[in-house]
Amino acid sequence: MPVAHRIRLTFLLGQALAAPATAQVTPESRAGVDVFDRFAPAVAAIRVMETNSNAKSASGSGFFVTADGHLVTNYHVIADWVLTPARYAVEVDFPGDTTARAEVLAVDVVNDLAVLRVDAPQRVVLRFARAGASQGDRLYAFGFPGDMGITIVEGTYNAYVEHMYHPRLHFTGSLNPGMSGGPTVNRAGEVVGVNVATAGNQLSMLVPAAHADSLLAAVLAPGYAPPADFVPTIGADVAGDRSRYVERLLAEPFPTVRLDRFQVPTRPAPFFECWGETDTEARERWEYLDHQCVTDDELFVSEDYVGSAALVFHRVVRSDTINRFRFAQLLTESFQVNSFWTGGHLGEVTPFRCHRDNVGVGGHAFVAVLCTRKLLRFADLYDVVFKAATLGVGTIGLETTLQMSAIQFDNALRVMRAFLESITWAP
Amino acid sequence: MGPVIFVEVLDHRGRVARRQRYDTFPVHLGRAYTNEVILDDRTVCPAHARIDLREDGALQIEDLGSVNGMRLPGARSRVVTVPVATGVTVRLGRAAVRVCTPDHPVPPALREADASLTRIVEGMSTGGVLGVIAAAMAVLVADFGVSTTDASAVTSTLEFAFGVTIGLGFWAAAWATIGRLAGRRFRYLKHLAWVAGGAAGLAVLARVSRYTDFVFPNADGLAAIIGIAGAALAGTILYGHFAIADVMRRRTRLITVGAVAVAAFAASEAIPDDPDEGTFTDLTVTYTIEPLPRWMVPTTDLADFLEEAGAARRAVDRLAEEDAPSALPPRPGEEGEDLPQ
């Protein structure tokens, strides 16, 4: 597998074993001081405590949105509790040096949000911005990075991150682990987005406030009761999200790109980014043409399973000088090793199991392998890897891989079918 | 005409080394050159025994007071006289002698197809043996060399040839030594030819197996047949070494090979399949791609393939049922795979 040129998102989750954060830049404008003075009291530190050892397993930030003590934070901050409530407890620190246990009321895995409540009335609460911000606006992010205490980070609003399926706002400012779930507000103290992830030096992402607003509205609706177990609702949320995702992928035929004599599917949807690479070494007598499409979306399900929805990888192997036996061996070596990006281990997923056959599609023949593993926590969600290699084309071969995670099996088959059917070549 | 006997001197395996007819008596047996039957073994006295007529006209073998005495085969105690009946065998020291009379029964002739492996091997000339070794090595080296994708195919093929030569050479030497220790002949080249031929056969069978698996990936029966053929070939190689080394009787060899096969099978069944076969993040697919032409490979419909792929799904569904999510997942940071940061 070639080196991925993608930016790996870092979730702003402060952890017991995380490296210490770097110092924050303190704002010098009066506006910043003013925003801090007025709105910092609404920002709380959130910790997930492991009840056996009474030590924290995760920490992040949140902010109060009702006088009744409702807070908004990210799902991934309290994921440990949600997945294994018996072993953890959620605690909130808020102004007045108070610590209280919090109850988790609602969870939105797809947008990485959660609504909590502490049984303590709050004086200072934040409202969600109704009007959209403009690119270039000054924004102020709050949170508790590392063990540094309440921090304000001033930065710039840069509209939506392009090419993401789950909409995220691009905030140019240094967010650090521990600031997850904290608010990013405009000068009037209205929440524009919720801190969720960073992709490196001052590239930060926020969940648009509208999603938090609707989650809160659902909680505050009369007759709302939190489920006894959130895990099935998470499974249902992810399943629903993936179904919509697949419909989006299949809405139109895949665009194709030419690799040597093969036309292969690329950029299944606008939120994919594609890279190509040619690998020829002077001493080797063959060359690889690689083409890869990935999506920057990551869905945080648990600490050990961060789902990247889909990945497409093509490799054309060609040689003018080696014999067919060697070429077949070369294809075999390339075919045999795969890394599945999404992590996962014993307890989260089953091992992979595969099915292999030779398949004819549109007059062409492929070696096809379909491997799958099942997610253990949720009903009916699978990770699926589909690999195919062309048969009988002399000393040039195409190997193609499609990986999809946390998806219904039948949906995966639909995508695979469309994918394979879109591969053609000139004889 | 008086009694006629045939005195047969036997070798250590009980086969007749030399035979002589006698019709005048007494017939003396011993190491000295004054005897009618001269026995070369140092445990035989110069005048060890004699065959002579008794008063009643019957023949007997009589010990002449030798150092190591005369024994019947298998017996510990010495005897002084043994009456001659056709086929009687006596041990004089370490030497063995059999006395037969003209009425000794002989079984009818064997048909040529029953000739044992040993005779085939013994019949091969040195040139034939070297030819077999050369041909087998050529097959093994070609099988490796034609497929290797190492940067320098020539170098790695030469390394392979060297390695194979050393390996087979040691194996053949071990068998030749077993044969020699059992008092047989060394027969190094024949052992080498045998194992080289067998190894070449296994290499060809492995290639056939890969091709068959490629063309018919879901034909478990076919794979099983090839597996059995491979086991049979391995068993034949083992049996052949026993035969060339000339140890054990034919039936014992077969039983030994059978026992080894059963033990190997039992061992492979006893080692439990790793239930976590296939790790969780790095999916290693073991299927090979073979250089067979398109027309040789039957294909299924894409729709059928996707439906049959449900088998993989059902397999993980079963695994999921056995494996409820653990109540206590590891602490964050303990399992080091692919943490988001």
Helix/strand-derived class of chain B? alpha+beta
Averaged pLDDT of chain B:
84
Strand order of the largest sheet of chain B: 2-1-10-9-7
Outline the low-pLDDT stretches of chain A: 1-7, 16-25
Our Rg estimate of chain A from Cα atoms comes to 24 Å
Write down the secondary-structure element order of chain B: EEEEEEEEEEHHHHHHEEHH
Total helices of chain B: the number is 8
In terms of quaternary structure, the protein is heterodimer
Q: What is the overall silhouette of chain B?
A: elongated
Largest sheet descriptor of chain B: 5 strands, antiparallel
Query: What is the number of beta strands of chain B?
Result: 12
- Helix coverage percent of residues of chain B? 40-55%
Characterization of the model:
The complex is a heterodimer of chains A (427) and B (341). With 427 residues, chain A is an alpha+beta fold. Chain A has helices at residues 30-39, 79-83, 209-220, 230-250, 324-336, 409-421; strands at 10-11, 14-15, 43-50, 55-64, 70-73, 88-94, 98-108, 113-118, 127-128, 138-143, 151-160, 169-172, 183-185, 190-198, 204-208, 256-259, 262-265, 272-280, 287-295, 298-302, 305-308, 310-318, 337-339, 353-361, 364-374, 382-390, 396-407, 424-425. Chain A has 6 helices and 28 strands. A 7-stranded antiparallel β-sheet of chain A has the order 18-19-22-27-26-25-24, with helices on both faces. A 6-stranded antiparallel β-barrel of chain A has the order 10-11-12-15-14-13. In chain A, a hairpin with a 7-residue loop joins strand 10 and strand 11. Chain A is elongated. The model of chain A is unreliable at 1-7 and 16-25 (pLDDT under 50). Chain B has a 5-stranded antiparallel β-sheet, with no helix packed on it.
In short:
The complex is a heterodimer of chains A (427) and B (341). By secondary structure, chain A is α+β, with helices and mostly antiparallel strands.
Topology:
The complex is a heterodimer of chains A (427) and B (341).
Chain A: E1 10-11, E2 14-15, H1 30-39, E3 43-50, E4 55-64, E5 70-73, H2 79-83, E6 88-94, E7 98-108, E8 113-118, E9 127-128, E10 138-143, E11 151-160, E12 169-172, E13 183-185, E14 190-198, E15 204-208, H3 209-220, H4 230-250, E16 256-259, E17 262-265, E18 272-280, E19 287-295, E20 298-302, E21 305-308, E22 310-318, H5 324-336, E23 337-339, E24 353-361, E25 364-374, E26 382-390, E27 396-407, H6 409-421, E28 424-425
Parallel strand pairs in A: 9-14
Antiparallel strand pairs in A: 1-14, 2-4, 3-4, 3-6, 4-5, 5-8, 6-7, 7-8, 10-11, 10-13, 11-12, 12-15, 13-14, 14-15, 16-17, 17-28, 18-19, 19-22, 20-21, 22-27, 24-25, 25-26, 26-27
Chain B: E1 5-10, E2 16-22, E3 27-30, E4 37-38, E5 49-53, E6 59-63, E7 70-71, E8 81-83, E9 88-92, E10 95-100, H1 117-123, H2 126-145, H3 153-181, H4 188-215, H5 220-245, H6 250-270, E11 282-284, E12 300-301, H7 302-308, H8 310-322
Parallel strand pairs in B: 3-4
Antiparallel strand pairs in B: 1-2, 1-10, 3-5, 5-6, 6-8, 7-9, 9-10
